[in-house]
Design a protein that fits this description.
The chain has 397 residues and is an alpha+beta fold. It is built from 20 helices and eleven strands. The radius of gyration is 28 Å and the shape is elongated.
């Protein structure tokens, strides 16, 4: 018996299906979380009802995946995915089943899932269905495939990344047979969509154990994006966990470590291949350049960095330097940012239009703006319109 306390809208869905004669269970990740004593964020339900029958019972539902038996049932302002019991055919692309067959029993449905800890179900009255030993594996803190692990990874190569993602998040070990199958089937990862690989990689580096990525790399799951024969240090990779759980900082730290281990030659090429957004790429590229230089030794040097690279890259580089090398750079940067002193063109007391009225154009205009910015960053108390216009006028005489 499990101490299950799903929200009222989830209970309503379960009871509505059961009252019409259709078996219905909580399934997948929410059951795993319940067994771990964690409140689930999402509640998934599987049922013997066909998609069309689910739509009849819940008229306001959305047919989000009818081909695969999935309906998003809406109850008031809340929703949950309800999926018909199913089995699956072959996976020609190593990612999606070629055919889905709706079935009438729960065990067949659970047997198609990735890991034993995700192949459990709980009935409305709290009884656990666990035909593959997920409860024991959770107690042993073990990630094990349902059935033949090589077959599971042949079906969906992304499951190899998911194994490491769960390991990094939960602190579980990957069972020896499952790990051996990952090593054997690693070349299949090259065919995965870059966006999927990016998302799984990001989840790992945002986890409490980002050093798990070292094993991902050593087994060859990222060979499509990295140079071969990189020497990685898990202890150093663990330092990524000292950073805030924000993607820009952690991607920047990862790129720094990959550069120094010669796993990549270009941050921009690496992140572009993984389809990161342009803002993140600019931030990480700037941070990588800054991390290759000494930490600024004065407020003026910090302001020079801020004016050239922008706040995002400079903050990322300072936080990464502190995490990776144990310095206190971010404290010094924060003092500069709190001062409110000028460190960008937008902070100058004069604008390009002001200087154009003095007759400056083209390259001369840009050079004067840069000169005034450097001057004000070194002498912040002199960021006054009249004084700066006077300096600009004097230089033209």
């Amino acid at each position: 018996m499990a101490a299950v306390s799903p929200p009222k809208y989830v209970k309503h869905i379960l009871v509505s299906l059961l009252s019409r004669g259709y078996a219905a269970y909580l399934v997948g990740g929410c059951v795993r979380d319940i067994m771990l004593g964690v409140r689930p964020h999402d509640w998934d339900i599987c049922t013997a009802a066909l998609p069309e029958q689910i739509m009849e019972i819940f008229p306001g539902s959305r047919p989000t995946g009818m081909k695969h038996g999935t309906v998003t049932v809406v109850v008031g302002s809340r929703s949950a995915e309800v999926t018909t019991f199913r089995s699956e055919g072959s996976y020609a692309d190593h990612r999606h089943p070629d055919i889905v067959r709706f079935v009438g029993d729960l065990t067949t449905d659970l047997g198609r899932r990735d890991f034993t800890m995700n192949a459990m179900a709980i009935s409305a009255d709290g009884l656990i269905a666990d035909p593959f030993g997920g409860t024991d594996d959770i107690k042993a803190r073990c990630i094990r495939c349902v059935g033949d692990p090589e077959r599971r990874f042949d079906e969906d190569a992304l499951r190899m990344f998911r194994a490491f993602r769960f390991s990094s998040r939960l602190g579980f070990d990957i069972e020896a047979g499952t790990l051996a199958a990952i090593k054997k089937r690693a070349p299949l990862a090259a065919g995965l969509a870059a966006e999927r690989v990016r998302d799984e990689t990001e989840r790992i580096i945002l986890s409490p154990r980002p050093e798990t990525l070292c094993q991902v790399i050593e087994l060859g799951l990222l060979d499509r994006y990295l140079n071969g024969n990189a020497r990685l240090d898990p202890d150093t990779f663990h330092r990524i966990s000292l950073l805030p759980k924000r993607a820009p900082e952690r991607w920047s730290a990862l790129c720094r470590l990959l550069l120094t281990s010669h796993a990549i030659a270009s941050v921009k090429n690496f992140l572009t291949a993984l389809r990161l957004d342009n803002r993140s790429i600019r931030c990480c590229c700037g941070a990588a350049e800054l991390l290759a230089c000494p930490c600024p030794a004065s407020a003026f040097e910090w302001k020079r960095q801020l004016s050239r690279y922008g706040t995002d890259s400079v903050c990322c580089s300072a936080r990464c330097r502190d995490a990776l090398t144990g310095t206190k750079c971010y404290r010094a940067l924060r003092a500069v940012l709190k001062s409110g002193e000028c460190c960008s063109m937008n902070d100058l007391a004069v604008t390009g239009d002001d200087l154009m009225r003095l007759g400056l154009r083209g390259r001369e205009l840009g050079e004067m703006l840069n000169f005034l910015l450097d001057y004000v960053m070194e002498y912040p108390g002199n960021n006054r319109r009249e004084l700066l216009l006077s300096l600009a006028s004097a230089s033209e005489e």
